[in-house]
Amino acid sequence: MQYFLDVILPIRIERTFTYKITSEEAAALQKGMRVAVPFGKSKIYTAIAFHVHQNPPTAYEAKEIHEILDSHPVLVPTQIKFWQWIADYYMCTLGEVVRAGLPNALLLESETLILPKVLDKVPEGEFTDDEFLIVEALRHQSSLQIKDVADITDRKRVLPLINGLVEKGVVRLKEEIHEKYRPKTVKYIRLNPEYESETALQNLLETLTRAPKQSQAVLSYFSIYGQQKKPVGLTDFEKTSRISKSVIKALIEKSVFEAYELQTDRVVYEEGERKVRDIQLNPLQTKAIGDIQESFEKPRVCLLHGVTSSGKTEVYIKLIKKVIDSGKQVLYLLPEIALTTQLINRLKAYFGNTIAVYHSRYSYNERIEVWNNVLHQSEKAQVILGARSALFLPFSKLGLVVVDEEHEQSYKQFDPAPRYHARDAAIVLANLHGANCLLGSATPSIESYYNVKKGKYGIAEIPRRYGEVLMPEIELVDIKEAHRKKRMKGHFSERLLKAMETALEENEQIILFQNRRGFAPILECTTCGHAAQCPNCDVSLTLHQHREQLRCHYCGFHIPILQSCQACGSSTLDTKGFGTEQIQEELKHLFPDAKVGRMDLDTTRGKYSYDKLINAFEAQELDILVGTQMITKGLDFRNVGLVGIMNADSLLNFPDYRAHERSFQLLVQVAGRSGRTQKRGNVLVQTYNPYHQVLQQVSSYDYPKFFHDQVYEREQFKYPPGTKILRITLKDRDYNKLNEASDWFATSLRNVLKCTVLGPEYPAISRIRNQYLKNILIKFTTAEPVAKTKKSIKRVNQSFDAISNYRSVRVVYNVDHI
Predict the structure, then answer these.
(1) Is residue 643 part of a domain?
(2) What is the pLDDT of residues 731-776, one digit of tens each?
(3) Residue 229 pLDDT class (50, 70, 90 cuts)
(4) Which of 48, 208, 641, 662 could pair with 215 as two cysteines, CB 3.0-4.6 Å apart?
């Protein structure tokens, strides 16, 4: 009897693919196991086993699988169900979700090997110079990889060259898969059991009298580790005993010591005793926990709306403790990797070494270890702390999902697919597991608060700071008036400089917020007005003084700083606007004795760069920290007395319906970094329009009024939360073809859909990486059948793909566009 297997391939294809398997393989395979399968002409992929059946495919002849890679599933059934929901809701393929969800080390792909066939078959005169180099290399090596051929010939495109040799019958190609993950092992040593008795040890020392260093090594082993039953690490022994490797190696060869290896985790946090003390909650926190538990019993998602520094983390810890005591797992989501640094130390005080951390800054080997610990429900992975990618882990006993700073834009994945929102996906994940979901924020998103008002979510509130500390005083500084009266020093008003001087005199730290990295966004010629542009994107190049470069923040293109104008040749170049780098430079001149740090994408590229900056600021090694929105997100610094916002108008005047919401959230969040202990903090907001409605609401912390105004405005113009938005972006290198294709797509949508279709229209930046972009917006009310609308759009897309002239045009879906 013939068996078949449907698999999910980690590529952008709409359906599962079917392969032939034997009856033995059918018995061994389980849903969620990895199998290596051939796909296309010769490529081998790692696919996920989905369904074993006996129905052969009708459209094609099924190939045989290459091999089964696992003895047990690496995905659990609920996880696969969750991934299917993401694919359906966010209009992408299940393969794209697998590609995003599985760590790279589990997605083995084949490597093309070039093997010699008959090297003497073709006369040497018929080879080109590059082909001759490859043939000569194969005379001395059994095989070559693609990268080897590129190195030998010093060419980037080598496939035509290899195909030419295949056609001549000189070489053949073979696909071979390699396991990427290697467990980390540590070398240990122990004394041979023969020498454990006193007599045997004495005899051994007598035989080593002519080798004093070896004798000293044996004595050191006994003096340091004699009473210890734990394994003795080779490196630790070398350091503590100061014995060289060669001496230890000689003793191993003499069978005095035995060497062995033990597998260990790559991510090991310092051993710490759990502090068994209970958390002392104030009455407001206690009431919040009661309200949360009441919401969970309904069951409903609950929103914890607590002002900055109100003690939300202590509430989370109390709830987490209850869940892990019941034997279930907890997922704690954070918007920024930077936040994990501080939170790990706080959580370890209560939960010891039961915490696992999962985010993109970890290597793929480290991520595999966390994945396996979660899969096997290890004690090391009871509380999983992570950024949005932690949603994809193989949970089987999930009891609680906490989404901290739920309002953050960072929870939305933009590229590549799936373009999911981690907050919304977390709610679905919790629902699939029958777990509770808690959203927390000092400035909730309009959507979440709207759901509270509609009765869909429960709410718990902490309206005051922990310890009855007053909220920081927010002062709006009119820099238009300061410029007119010439009372500005660079980008600093007199009021801000005076406040900074006072804070530094009182040994308080300062945070300065400017939501733009680099030195200046534009380098302009004052003679002709020309500004350096990116050749691949429709944006100006940003000046990075430290690197001495002009860089594009969209494609990475960069050139050295220009000395003269590219258009007229004039050397009168001047900067427009300012970024974090320029603020840092100005501070060196204004406060030469102050230690200044900078936190933005340029300074936090390294694996431990977040930790170093945050730890340095916490230890008060830095006086002033300049940063982008990274510094606004839930960081807890105890000695910050002043926060300065350099330019609030750049946030407010952004061409986006969420600009006011984001401005309010960012300004209130960054203000909340100050005055977190007894003394009240100060916040100075520099603006050209201090009478702006949103800034007035920020200065009085009036979230209800802000929410009411925003919802009223959005209802008038049909924007979320009352209306759903789906953005379709079409991309192509050919400007005319894109115009024609987008018009066809939009017209077809209007004919099929009853909802509002806007566009096609060019976005503010209409070309990125040499591809022109056009957007179509679809607005539909929550009352309309969403699934039916998406199916209609997919049918239009299938008709669009069938038009040969439009095949190069790429269509990208962004569901719940923000």
Answers:
(1) yes
(2) 999 999 999 999 999 999 999 998 899 989 999 899 999 999 999 9
(3) low
(4) 208
Mean pLDDT estimate for the chain: 86
Q: What is the pTM of this model?
A: 0.82
**Is 427 part of any domain?**
yes
- Do 501 and 495 meet the contact criterion of CB atoms below 8 Å apart? no
Shared domain for 289 and 359, answered yes or no, is: yes
- Domain annotation covers residue 698: yes
Query: How many structural domains is the chain composed of?
Result: 5
Quick one: 696 and 749 in the same domain?
no
Contact 628, 333 (CB under 8 A): no
- Find the mean pLDDT for residues 408-431: 93
User: Mean pLDDT throughout 97-119?
Assistant: 79
Co-location of 431 and 392 in the same domain: yes
What CA–CA distance (Å, rounded) separates 463 from 769? 47
How far is Cα 215 from Cα 208, in angstroms, rounded to an integer?
A: 6
- What's the distance, CA 458 to chain centroid? 29
Q: Are 319 and 400 in contact (CB under 8 A)?
A: yes
**Nearest 5°: phi and psi at 537?**
-135, 160
Q: Cβ(644)–Cβ(372) under 8 Å?
A: no
**If we measure between CA atoms, which residue out of 759, 766, 777 comes closest to residue 731?**
766
* Residue 392: domain span: 283-466
Helix, coil or strand: residue 15: coil
Kindly write down the DSSP assignment for every residue of 428-490, as one continuous string. Answer: HHHHHHT-EEEEEESS--HHHHHHHHTTSSEEEEE-S-GGGPPPPEEEEEEHHHHHHTT-EET
In tens, the pLDDT along 486-514 reads 888 889 999 999 999 999 999 999 999 99
Cross-strand partners of 489: 492
**Could you give the CA distance from residue 267 to residue 248 in angstroms, rounded to a whole number?**
28
Statement to judge: residues 360 and 212 lie in one domain: no
Which of 662, 684, 712 finishes a domain? 712
Q: Which of 712, 742, 769 is the last residue of a domain?
A: 712
pLDDT reading at 429 higher than 80: yes
> Which candidate, 175, 95, 644, 76, places its Cα nearest to that of 376?
76
- Based on the fold, state whether residues 396 and 494 are members of the same structural domain: no
Q: Are residues 506 and 638 in the same domain?
A: yes
> Distance of CA 784 to CAs 711, 723, 779, Å?
20, 10, 10
Q: Is the CB of residue 44 less than 8 Å from the CB of residue 37?
A: yes
- Burial class of residue 221 (count of CB atoms within 10 Å of its CB; 0-12, 13-18, 19+): buried
86 belongs to a structural domain: no
Kindly write down the DSSP assignment for every residue of 201-235, as one continuous string: HHHHHHHTTT-HHHHHHHHHHHHHHTT--S-EEHH
pLDDT of residue 271: 44
Claim to verify: residue 412 and residue 320 sit in the same structural domain? yes
What does each C-alpha distance from 246 to 214, 221, 250, 282 come to in angstroms?
10, 16, 6, 61
644 & 776 share domain: no
Q: What is the CATH number of the domain that holds 625?
A: 3.40.50.300
